[in-house]
Amino acid sequence: MNSTRDEFIYSLMGFKKAMAIFSSECEIHMSELAILKTIIDNCGSKCTGANLDVQDVQNKLQITKPAVSYILNSLEKKNYIKREIDAKDRRKLSIYATPKGQTAAAESDKTFNQTWDTLLERFGEEDMLCLIELLNRLNDICADFDQDRLCNKKD
């Protein structure tokens, strides 16, 4: 058995627990919060609707288009967002946060920030920056694996 491989697997499993801390402390999951905040940031509080750049969200969150759709459906079921046909271009959807969604985002963001501050204080900013860099490298490598698999399936 490769002990480095085993340690990596155990670390990933532990990391899932670390990620769960953020979601369990907040009213909504991190991915929901990220998309809801994107909608609010792109639209503002008095917006009647904005077109969400799904490709941008996919890249930012490193998730698939079906995952974005699933999250949007979840947010809509919770009455955090509304989707309507865009009045200017009927081929597009306008998406906006409801008052309930704006409140949920604000509360979850506040809780997330408190958890983040504690984590950063205990972990240290320098170590956090190093971890972020390493995680980004790992994500890039994993994205290459995904691309390689897609290319091999076409052969």
TrEMBL record:
Residue intervals of the HTH marR-type domain: 5-140
Name under which the protein is recorded: MarR family winged helix-turn-helix transcriptional regulator
Organism: Aequitasia blattaphilus
